[in-house]
Amino acid sequence: xxxxxxxxxxxPILTFAGNAKIVSGPFQGHTTSSTTKIWxxxxxxxxxxxxxxxxxxxxxxxxxxxxxxxxYCFKNECPFKADLSKLREASTYTIDLYSQKTLLSSGKIxxxxxxxxxDFSFLVGSCAFIGxxxxxxxxxxxxxxxxxxxxxxxxxxFMLWMGDNLYLLGGELKxxxxxxKRYTSVRKHKKLNHFMKKKFHYSTWDDHDFGPNNxxxxxxMKNLTKKVFENYWQNPNxxxxxxxxxxxxxxxxxxxxxxxxxxxxxxxxxxxMLGETQLKWxxxxxxxxxxxxxxxxxxxxxxxxxxxHECFYQYESERKDLFSFIKESQINGVLFxxxxxxxxxxxxxxxxxxxxxxDFTVSGLTSxxxxxxxxxxxxxxxxxxxxxxVKHNYAVISISGIQHERSFKITYKDKFGKIxxxxxxxxxxxxx
Length: 432
What we know:
By secondary structure, the chain is of the alpha+beta class. The chain contains eight helices and 20 strands.
């Protein structure tokens, strides 16, 4: 299998311009054969000169001045975002960041090959509690060892973060300053920062990076948390006014990252999760897609009927609308990914007149999980295939095979990289 290796490991800081420094990143966000999005966190600096140079051809270089996003700084630490274009396909560039004439950091970034069908892989995870300040003492069982494993993971061109990428707690939900403090503190976490520089990253959110536990779109600070989220990630496309949802293609798959919070309304008899605009966007995207696999990512599970916890299955009107649309429009290759639950499992449901639907839950990376949950009611879910995983874990998704006969494989791994469970399905198994 061909695995794209993305090198973004920075060399040690060489010199300082006064107190200016890079305290997190840079890491790559959405990346194509000719573009990439860069994010980093700078301290005591308002403008950084970015010089990128093609390793194979020094005549291919660019110089860009990047200004801090001043509205989203915590004290002297500010996020920086840059969109780099006119890059060469499947190329490696050095990236040097300067303050005035002083080099702050030096590393490498890459573009991908413009291929339609090839073997590749990517990583998936959710629920990453990282203690900062006093809450380190509250959840002593939260291990961040998994980020070292992810940094060493040879598989995976990119990482999908499926929500609860950090946890906003208490007063952080009512204060912009405290929200930004949490984001900057988490991004400076040594193990996480090391991993972030190894891959490029895509993310959506769930309740804990959106608002309070199990919150819906009535959360009064949602526009603030949305803006902060958008300033600390580098996802594709311009942000939607009604959420953080988007889609992107990678080879012959298409990934739809949903927002399960911003438009959600849990009040009244006809509750909604996605909202009319997002649901129409999703259906239009699925109908137009020619991808072998159409992966729909949601913070919440999609196929679980266990009603003690959140699940798209509880939003009957929207659920029926979406699944009827898939059936009537003969949309092939739909797979669901989800997080949220602090356990991992594979759910499979066969509905009349369609191929079987799968929901691959991958949770959690570091968050607390109840070790005896599998012994209760939910542990006996009739739709589960395989194991009920309560260890900290992530998943490697591998796509392989010739055109029209593609294969999908998910491999769950624990925080040390040990394989916990694997499942493979063929493209024909999820086709009409």
